Each structure stands twice: as C-alpha cells, then as structure tokens.
Task: inverse folding
C-alpha cells in the first residue's frame, strides 16, 4: 500500500483529530499532498472517515505556520528569529538560571495529547531526568484524567475495556455525557448501524443530542438530567437494579471483591440513592429512571459509552467509578458487546496518559513513589529520580501566581484558550520568567512566551498514536518538517542542552525503550505493529503477543473488581437569582477543540461560529430571539455571542460550543474541579443571559 519514493505515491497514516484514530491514506503528487482518503484496512474505521479527517488538513501548509524559532527576553519586546541552536540554548539556559535562583521545582512542562507517544515520552523523561522533578502534566488533565483515576480504582486499569467493533454485539447501549455523531463520527456511524439492527438506546444527557431522535436513530429512553447530577442518576440506576434483584449475582460472586461489594451494597440501598431522590436532584421522573435501569440490567449485553459530559465535573472521578460499579453489578465486563468505553476527545489522550505524563506516574501508570519502579527507571536512564509527585496544571498556575513556579515548557497545547478561568491563567503566565511554547502557530498562549519552538504537524513525522480503544497505530511522515525538526528532535535537543544526554536516532528507537520499561507495551515495536496489520491494542506483551481487544475477560489486573461507594455531592456552582441558568458545553461535527487547525482550512464549512442555545421560555423571558447577540455573565467573567432559540436544551439550561477564540467560553468557566484529579468543571457554569441592544 505504501509506495514511498514514487512520483505519485500514498502514505498510510492515522488521523490527528479525535480519539477514534481512523487510518488515513495521504495521496501525494510529487511532494504535494493532494488528497486524504480513509484507509480501507484501518481497524478503527473500516474504510470510513469523517469530514475533519478527510478535508481539514490544510492547516499543515497554512501561511500562519511559524517555521523559524524565535526568542525575546520580555513579552513586551518583538520576537527575534534565531537559529535552532540559539533558541534551544537560550531556553535551556533560562531553565537552568531559574532553577539556580528559585530551586529545582520551579520549572516544569505540559505535554500534548496531539503529539505522538514517542514525543510525549520524551517530554516527561526530560522533566524527570533533565529538570530533576516530576512537574509534568498533560492536557488530558482537563478532559479524561477522571477516567484514568476512576477506572484504575475499580477495574484496575486506566483504560476503556473494549474494541470499537464490540458495539456490533451490544443489545443495549447506554450513552452518558457524550455526543458520538458529532464528536466521534466514525464510531457514531458504527453505533447507528447497530441501532438500526435493533439494539436499544438509553441516552443520559441534558441536551437532545441527535441520537435521541433522528431519521437514523431514536432513543428508547432520553433522560435529560440537570447538568452536574450524573452521580445521582447512576446511583439510582444501581439502586433500582439491586432493589429489584436483577443484578448479575454470578458475576459479582466470581469476579468481584466481596468486601468492597458488601460495603457498596449498604451504601447504594440508602434512600438518598433511590429513583425518587434522584428525580428531585436530576429533574427526570423516577419511573423513567427505573424503566431505563431495568432495560440496562435485563436487555442483554449492555455497553456504556461516555465522554467529557461525565468527566468534566466536580464529581467526574466519582461518576466514572459509578459507571464501573454499574457495569460490574450487571456482569457487563469481559465480553464483546459490553464494557466501559470512554470516548476520548483528542487523538492521543490515551497514549499521553500511558506515556507517564501525569506528575505522579511513570509510563504504564506506576506511581513515582514506588521504589522498585523508580529503581528500574533510574537504572535505565542513569539518573536519580524524584520520589515525590510533581505539580498538576492548576497547581502550576497557582504556584506561578504565588511566585514559586517560574519556567514552563508547553508542548502543543494552547492553555490560555483551553483551560478554565482565562483571567487566572493569564495572571499565571504573566508571572513566568520563561515560557517556552512549542506549537505550529503563534497561539494565544504564545502572547506570554519568551521562546517559540516551531513544532511539526502529524503529517511531518513518524510515530504512534493510541486511540480510545487502546489501539496503537502508526503515523508516518508524509512531508518534510516545515521547521526542519520533528517534535521529538526538539525535545531531545532541549534535554541535551539542559545537560541530560539523549541520542535517539528515530521514533522507533524511542518506542523500543518504552517497550523495555513498560510491561503493558513489552512486545510492541514498529516491526510488530506492521506485522499486526498496522495497529495493535495494548496490553501487548509476552502474555498477549497479539494485543488485547477486550480486557478483563477472566480477571482484573488486581484480581477482583473493586466497588467504590459513590456518594452524590452537589457542585459548589449553584444557580441563584443573579445567575439563574446553567451553561454546559459540547462540540459540533465540523470544528475541533479551539479550532486552531479546522479554522485554518480553505473551505468555509470550517468557519461556523459558536452559538448559545437557549430554550424558548428562557429566551422569551429575556426578549431574546434567534440571531440576537446576547451577553453571558458568570461569576468570573462575561462574553457575548449569537443566540439560537432551541428546544434541544431544557428550560434553565443553556449550551454552547468552545471552538472559536472570539467567543472565548473559558472566560466564563470557573475554577471548580474534580475532587480527585483537578479536571475542570467545564460542564456546569451558573450564568445570566441578557440581550445586547444595538450590537
Ligand atoms: Fe479523524 Fe475522528 Fe473523524 Fe476519524 S472520526 S476521521 S479520527 S476526526
């Protein structure tokens, strides 16, 4: 299939947008990329791709690309173009100067879920080995960190249990806090196919997403709960199943830990978890909750798919654990057609977490305080490593504001746009003495940067991405890096300049090291991935040489499944007279995250603006009509955007997307965060809406 070196040739690679990870075929005329088509042998997509993967790659050659490194000693000065050598040496000398003045822990890095596994691995290694601390975090902090935490506590592994094709065997599909037809379209199509064949559908979502009622799908139950009440709803499902004695007793007895089950059982039968209590909290009638729970428990093989509508809450980790509890009591683990399936937003969220991007974990989710693991890395890397967890992203911001954190290396994430409470992030960035931004474009964050290192797009490098089903797929170089360096080469050069030597010849070398040091990746190499048809699902090791499409078939990593009581605790973000509506957020099909790539594609379909969906009752109370400009005011800020009057949202709830920097929805999101992982509570913001006259 790959015919490199021919005048007209094609290169097989992997989409760099969402966590489906579709295989794509990049077709070239000479050196020019002319077409991107779905790869028919791609196991995640089976010959399909969505509009983003097929058509939104123009950003790679857009004139906004920065291709020369730049430095400046103050953010008030103009940028100065310099050689790679000068930029890297300047960055390294600033990091060293800051550490000498403020201490070893005064610097750190943020790695990107848009970059490859090999690149992310090198960033965390540079922080741990060259900077000498664990101040490494990832943009997964703000999306699926609760998935990593919650699934590890319950099922024993920080990853989804299934393969995408598993949905073809599902009899009941429960979707909570996800909108697959817009956010994960190729998987959404597989799901619709199964629904057309007769599978039942339960949707738990504040908004009427298209799966609730379209020509292609109709949910058997839509439970439009109040944003922020997922845990109460999931507990009520479990309460119904246990009190009606329709749980899977054999699975619980054979596969689950009896002590934690007993404790959980006492908890779940409390009145506070009944459908009646949940009805008061969620706004969904108790009878509807009961019927949906019965269908889930007795309708055959039942699978749960969830997204950021579960994780981005103050109880994000609690909700993930409640989902795992629900799957275990109904025996929906370890078979095709069942399971717990986090739909990852970015192409390599799973991989960036696997690669040790969290401040408390080495690659393979092993705690930095574990002496045996630390010894292994110390021997392999020939350096003494810190046993204390480092700073998470929000802690970095707080430490920057208080003056103890002064240097940040930020790879491929526009934190100023992506992270909540923009004013707070601005205050933190303004206090840094050295901000190094590595990106394709001069993004919003770069306004506060002192060093700009021009990164490479996924079309300009080799490596691997890991999708939402743990599938490690190759990405292959389609064109030369515009700046002359792939991201792994930039990080390697920085590490060398900091005084910690790295001499990888290629990303394949890096993957070999990852495999040597990470038990779940032990059998992975580029040669093995090729042998397996271009991708393989981890764990892939001597026990599972061909990978693991479905996890936990016979046992869990820690033996038995662990139950965790999941008490519902309301968010601190309350509505009141001043802020009577709840704002929640989501995505549209034709945009991606903050739009840095999709908006730089020469096709007008990519330029849709963010709109505020508001229910007709709330709109008429405020004299708002379609296309009026409205002001959205929260406790932390205000923004304006166009209104769209719609019954897709319930009265009391408003909804928008976060794709356009002009609307800047994170100006109004708050500092509330998940109790376990600090994942921001993007999905619940109390707001007031008012019409802007004479806009
Ligand atoms: Fe890319 Fe996701 Fe679309 Fe597939 S579904 S082409 S991975 S954006």
Result:
């Amino acid at each position: 299939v790959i015919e490199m070196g021919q005048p007209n040739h094609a290169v097989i690679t992997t989409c760099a947008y969402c966590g489906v990870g579709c295989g794509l075929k990049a077709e070239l005329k000479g050196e020019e990329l002319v077409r991107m088509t779905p790869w028919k042998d791609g196991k995640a997509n089976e010959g399909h791709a969505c509009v983003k993967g097929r058509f939104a790659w123009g950003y790679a050659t857009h004139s906004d690309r920065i291709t020369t490194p730049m430095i400046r000693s103050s953010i008030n000065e103009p940028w100065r173009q310099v050689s790679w050598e000068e930029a890297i040496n300047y960055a390294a000398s600033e990091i060293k100067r800051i550490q000498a003045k403020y201490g070893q822990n005064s610097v750190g890095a943020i790695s990107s879920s848009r970059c490859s596994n090999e690149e992310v691995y090198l960033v965390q290694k540079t922080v741990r080995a060259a900077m000498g601390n664990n101040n490494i975090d990832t943009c997964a902090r703000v999306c699926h960190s609760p998935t990593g935490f919650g699934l590890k506590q319950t099922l024993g592994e920080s990853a989804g249990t299934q393969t995408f094709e598993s949905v073809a065997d599902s009899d009941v599909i429960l979707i909570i806090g996800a909108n697959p037809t817009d956010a994960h379209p190729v998987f959404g199509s597989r799901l619709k196919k199964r629904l057309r064949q007769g599978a039942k559908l339960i949707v738990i979502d504040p908004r009427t997403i298209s799966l609730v009622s379209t020509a292609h799908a109709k949910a058997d139950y839509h439970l439009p709960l109040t944003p922020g009440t997922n845990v109460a709803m999931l507990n009520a499902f479990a309460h119904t199943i246990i009190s009606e004695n329709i749980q899977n007793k054999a699975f619980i007895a054979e596969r689950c830990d009896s002590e934690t089950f007993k404790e959980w059982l006492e908890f779940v039968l409390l009145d506070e978890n009944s459908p009646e209590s949940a009805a008061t909290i969620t706004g969904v009638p108790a009878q509807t909750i009961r019927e949906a729970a019965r269908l889930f428990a007795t309708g055959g093989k039942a699978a749960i798919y969830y997204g950021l509508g579960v994780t981005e809450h103050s109880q994000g980790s609690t909700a993930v654990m409640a989902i795992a509890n629900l799957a275990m009591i109904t025996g929906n683990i370890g078979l095709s057609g069942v399971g717990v399936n986090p739909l990852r937003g970015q192409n390599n969220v799973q991989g960036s977490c696997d690669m040790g991007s969290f401040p408390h974990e080495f690659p393979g989710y092993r705690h930095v305080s574990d002496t045996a693991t630390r010894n292994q890395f110390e021997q392999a890397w020939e350096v003494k490593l810190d046993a204390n967890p480092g700073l998470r992203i929000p802690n970095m911001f707080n430490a920057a504001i208080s003056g103890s954190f002064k240097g940040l290396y930020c790879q491929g994430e526009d934190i100023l746009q992506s992270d909540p409470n923009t004013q707070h992030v601005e205050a933190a960035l303004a206090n840094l003495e050295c901000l190094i931004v590595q990106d394709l474009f001069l993004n919003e964050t770069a306004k506060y940067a002192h060093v700009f290192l021009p990164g490479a797009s996924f079309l300009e490098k080799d490596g691997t991405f890991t999708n939402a089903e743990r599938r490690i797929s190759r990405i292959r170089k389609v064109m030369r890096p515009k700046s002359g360096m792939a991201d792994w080469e930039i990080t390697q050069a920085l590490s060398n300049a900091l005084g910690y030597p790295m001499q990888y010849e290629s990303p394949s070398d890096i993957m070999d090291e990852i495999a040597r040091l990470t038990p779940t990746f032990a059998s992975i190499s580029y040669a093995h991935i090729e042998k397996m048809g271009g991708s393989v699902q981890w764990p892939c090791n001597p026990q599972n040489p061909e990978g693991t499409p479905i996890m936990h078939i016979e046992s869990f990593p820690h033996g038995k499944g662990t139950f965790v009581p999941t008490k519902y605790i309301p968010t601190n973000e309350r509505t009141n007279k001043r802020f009577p509506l709840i704002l929640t957020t989501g995505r549209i099909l034709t945009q991606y995250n903050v739009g840095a790539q999709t908006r730089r594609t020469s096709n007008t379909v990519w330029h849709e603006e963010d709109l505020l969906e508001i229910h007709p009752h709330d709109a008429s109370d405020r004299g708002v009509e379609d296309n009026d400009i409205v002001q959205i005011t929260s406790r932390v800020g205000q923004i304006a955007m166009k209104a769209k009057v719609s019954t897709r949202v319930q009265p009391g709830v408003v909804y928008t997307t976060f794709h356009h920097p002009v609307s800047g929805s994170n100006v109004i999101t708050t500092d509330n965060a998940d109790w376990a992982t600090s994942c921001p509570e993007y999905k619940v913001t109390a707001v007031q809406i008012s019409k802007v006259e004479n806009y």
Residues 1-5 have pLDDT under 50 and may be disordered. Residues 145-342 form a domain with the Dimethylsulfoxide Reductase; domain 2 fold (CATH 3.40.228.10). The chain has four domains: 8-61, 70-143+348-537, 145-342, 581-691. The pocket of iron/sulfur cluster is lined by residues 15, 17-18, 20-22, 45, 49-50, 52-53, 184-186 (CB under 6 Å).
